[in-house]
Specification:
Catalytic activity: alpha,alpha-trehalose 6-phosphate + H2O = alpha,alpha-trehalose + phosphate
InterPro entries: HAD-like_sf, HAD-SF_hydro_IIB, HAD_sf, OTSB-like, Trehalose_PPase
Pfam families: Trehalose_PPase
CATH topology of the largest domain: Rossmann fold
Radius of gyration: 18 Å
Function: Removes the phosphate from trehalose 6-phosphate to produce free trehalose.
Protein name: Trehalose 6-phosphate phosphatase
Strand content: 15-25%
Strand order of the largest sheet: 5-4-3-2-1-10-11-12
CATH superfamily of the largest domain: HAD superfamily/HAD-like
Order of helices and strands: EHEHEEEHEEHEEHEHEEH
Length: about 260
Amino acid sequence: MNFDEKNEVRLYLFLDYDGTLVPIAPTPDEAVPPPELLRLLHTLVGRDGLRVAIISGRGLKNLQEMLPVPGLYLSACHGAIIQHPGAPPRFLAAPTALEQLDHLTEEAQELIEGRTGFQIERKEMSVALHYRLADPDEVDTVLDAFLDLREQYCPDLECDLLAGRKVLEVRPKGVSKGTAVKILLAACPDALPVYIGDDVTDEDAFRALSGRGLTILVADARRATTARRRLTRPAVLDLLRGVAEHGPSYITSPDSLPTPP
């Protein structure tokens, strides 16, 4: 099936992965999607008038392995890569950034050698330092050294620094989840976009859809955000089940968020 030509898209769902579709886990590899979630995504993708994209900071290969659902649109590395179903990936960052990221990865691996609880994750278009399981007494020292390496190999003019939940990540400048959403949405100008995410990097997408779509922050408590609405993660899954059951008509406007069943 050619998913790009399947039908007129009326509702476009943009979904973050970690913290939105699955709980935050101690390590990225532990955040495995349950079978129910995969079945739900299969159902959503098969719905007429509906398109589904996963917008994640994860690497593309990792997303493909975690979510083997034909028909999903994918954006990886915080917007640096976009892939349509059945098509080769599109890299939005300059190839010259790869060499800089390679140098940073090598030096960062040496930095954490012999230190417990730190992990360097090299994605296709970014480098992440995870420290969720690290000794708190070592964290500041390692983070300061990582920032020094970042400044040496990936300076401000060429790369952005992203601070997440117990992770620091370096990505090429000029890309974001917001730019990825705009590119994907351009193919469906009449669709209502709904973006759901929990992370500070999702704020770029919230801003990109300001005045047009429905943006939902996934959080248990109120916090500063540009999203229009806030839901807990269980409520988000209930909302997606409602869309899967009733189709695009379940959400008809940016102000018509239904009460999940």
